[in-house]
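Quick look at the format.
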Amino acid sequence: MFMLFLLASYDPIATAKYYQFFKPGPKGGEAGGFKIDILTGPVERLREIGVKADSRRAHPVPKIEFHAHPLDEALTLEEHLKSVVIESSGRQGEVFLPHPFSFIMMKLFALRDRQDDPEKDYGRHHALDIYTIVAMMTSREWEESLQLAEKYKHSSKAQEAAGIVKEMFKDELSPGVIRLRESKYYKPSFQLVECLRALKDLFKID
């Protein structure tokens, strides 16, 4: 597998072995290092195709040393995938990037779960990611996001995501916006009003 080849220079993280990997920075520590989380879709969907999965991890049968962490909120993980060819050390492989809507769904839940966790920087990076994803969407991706939101609007996870938007991105004083402003990467030029409006339009919140 090309992904296993790419991860050859990374070390498995002991508390999340085989689905979280870390590559130390130039001085051998966390500074300048890279962490990779291997994520996948809903548990029940994985079980339907013969993958062994629970709330923490999923792996193929027979088992190999490459697992993934299931996310039930990743309803649209396999829809509108973007193919990207990457090359490393003379080897080439094709990877598929999830649609921005899939990322927004995952990041909303991550922010909600980490907003009060000091060990996870209070979820500030998740708030920043949500803003960045919305800001970088193409017009085509936006239209596709509206279609996906409509398609899954009756699912429990999509409705939960709408509740997170309503709670955390209602206005500029809401918790999600506060966490975004606390990020060291926040800039006064960020178009917060437009971002909030886009999130509300996407999840049909007045």
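Next, a different chain entirely:
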Amino acid sequence: MQNKYKIAFISLLALVISTVVYILFLVMTPREDVKTYVESTIDMKNPSLALKLDKIQTNEIINYYLVELQEESNIKYTFVLDNFALLTGDIKVFDQTVRLYVYFKPVVLESGNLLLEIESFSMGSLELPRKEILRYISKEYKLPDWVYVDLNEENIIIDLNSFDYEKIKFNASKIDLVSDELEFNIYLPIGN
């Protein structure tokens, strides 16, 4: 009789240990590769044009690009500039569609790229942890190659220097949403 209890105890102990090891394996294994941001710069020798826009004009350009980008995507999202930058999109939760809101403060980096500092996240009116929502955005939303989701710093970097439209390059020099001043530089290719 004592031998049955000993076998049952050892079997149960082995089951518990293997379950703990399996859970630790799942927790320690990364879900997906995350592309890392390496800051790029623009050759400042190229001729440059300064472009000044207001928020309405910038929103029109952003929406034009997003419509084209999301043509083949099941998940649709919008990005709007007001006195803050707002990303909205729908996500599925328990077979229900819920609106996701991400509020950003845009900051121009020295390189002319944009850093979107997260002010708040919410799903409906529920505040959510930043890192998990950023992971969801980077995995599920179709983002351009020049948009990086930095999970460690919990922000998004728009690498305008990597955005290339027929060899024309862009970067930002000023973003002041409250004063409605958005200034960009356009660098044209030489000799083309």
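The chain is about 30% helix and 35% strand.

See the schema section for token definitions.
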